[in-house]
Amino acid sequence: MTERHPALPARDGSTDPHLWLEDVVGEDALRWVRDRNARAEGELDVEGEVTALAADLKAILDSPASIPSVKQRGDYLYNFWTDADHPRGLWRRTTCASFRTEEPKWEVLIDVDALNAAEGQDWVWHGAAVLRPEGDEPWRHTLVHLSHGGSDADISREFDLVTGQFVDPAEGGFLRPEAKGGIAWIDADTVLICNDFGPGSLSSSGYPLQVRRWRRGTPLADAELLYAAEPGDMQAACWHDDAPGFARDWLYRVRAFYDNDLLLLNPDGSTTLIDVPGDCEAHPHRDLLLLAPRTDFEVDGVLLPAGSLAVAPLASFLPGWTGGGPRATVLFTPNDSTSLAEWFTTRDLIVAIAQEDVRTYLVAYVPTGDGWRAERIHRDLPGTVQAEAVDDVAGNDIQIVASGFLQPPTLYVSDLAPMLDGGAPGALEALKAEPSHFDSTGLVVTQHFADSDDGTRVPYFQIGPATPRPADESPVLMQGYGGFEISMFPSYGAIAGKAWLERGGTLVVANIRGGGEYGPAWHQAALREHRHRAYQDFSSVARDLVARGVTTRERLGCWGRSNGGLLTGNMLTQYPGLFGAVVIQVPLLDMRRYSHLLAGASWMAEYGDPDSSDWDFIRTFSPYHLLDDSVDYPSVLVSTSTRDDRVHPGHARKLTAALEGIGANVRYFENIEGGHGGAADNAQAAWVNALIWTFLQQTIGG
Q: What is the SS3 assignment for 567?
């Protein structure tokens, strides 16, 4: 690829004319943001199109018919819920019996809106962790995580489930200060904590490098240092396994994405390394160790192929092991069309969520006297399945959510315990079914394959009218991601359905390299110097849509978020002739500066190090440096969030300013709250989405 900017910004950004826009809350930068926001809203909402669509989308997001996502802890199912009356949400619980009724009776534990009003804060819910009690003690001790405006950095506060009140730190309650950190219960008076402990305790990405043990009633600064990662590492993390009889404390040393160590914290304060390759995911469960390697490796002569799932006795990886024979048993082995999407454990079984050409299915692995029996379960489940244990410590029940592009989610439960005695899994019980939020009459889903530049077959899904319209009357929006081994599964998109499909548009989801659709190799094929393959894949799908007569270049658009925003930024700059409109949301765009901005340094395993010779290939996919004032770019909308402390909003701001400088047709919107998700509540999410979908309707929609 030829150089397009004769004078690139220096690596420290000193010659960058738009560097001032990296000042996230600077007065001048925010004045620039407010001006662009007003301009975008004024241009797109001329006749109230955005306002009307936002109201429709908010009604979907606030729908009381949505399926509550629940976690079982003891006798209760816990859920976090938002609706029109509670935009920041309610943390609540109900009994298992009540949840099975049409109108469960919920006990509200925390009303975040009321909490904000009482404290004058802008809290956004980040989750809660409940301590599993010993014996007959009540489920009481909870750590609640809250962030300002939706940022990744958050705080943790102790909450008492018996009294229904936060525990005052002055009276011994745990309070983790704001940081990109974590905290985990050991027992009622002790926690493991990773946090900002001052100079030298954070990585260049802003993540904690220290793990400490903090005892109730003692100053946080005096918490016992258990482990410190190296200064050049990405992060240290910790967790406590609370399974009765198997309680242990675990540490993670994360050197980089796809490179970490699992260490057992011994009672004497020493650590034992679980000796597996750094790119192999290792997870202990009771007396087992599950292994998911990203590259081939052997354990006692047994090959564990990349993308497989294997199991071994945990003791065999600890000092003093005297057992004989191969330690590891391979459970799942991928092939050219199948891969391991996810896996989880119940108390006694292992369950894999596998995929074949991006279509998911479940396989249960049942312990036998001399090994493991594999059995594919619930074959009649429709659509894409997501599954997890109801309580992986207490039982073998699983909950499953099945959905598809045109199929609203249904929540099922099933008891796998009968499989332990050679029986079939318990029957599927449908607990909740979400109604359709848009009219799908006349719509169909089809799967296709496009040939990329190097001949690789790239799958993509097309959702649109069963009776095609002429290409020049058929608006098509492409979506993709292509990074971090994240798969784009068929799933129900109520917002896209209402805003696009119901209005005659066609949606295309491209399963390009860089994702995990065909396992680690599919991801590794587009890493670092091979990044161009993801963009070639996506552009090949775009050309295939035109070649098949589905649409035309003028009616074809693309939309990506985060790494997907980098994808669509490269579509704008490298393939401007393929698209009529481009949406770039919470993106990476300045790949020379990315590793110096917020969490950017943690992604160098994915993209490379721009402060080294890697810049020679990184510059070829840095949209900010690929702009050319002689090119006629398609219409573009760039969107981000001021509160995004993961991907710096400067990326989006600077590309927009550069596009304005060469006279491109660009609009910009920055939500003040919302973090990397782009919105802090349903009203904000509805408004941002309405702006984007209206932009697409006004450009490629006709």
A: helix
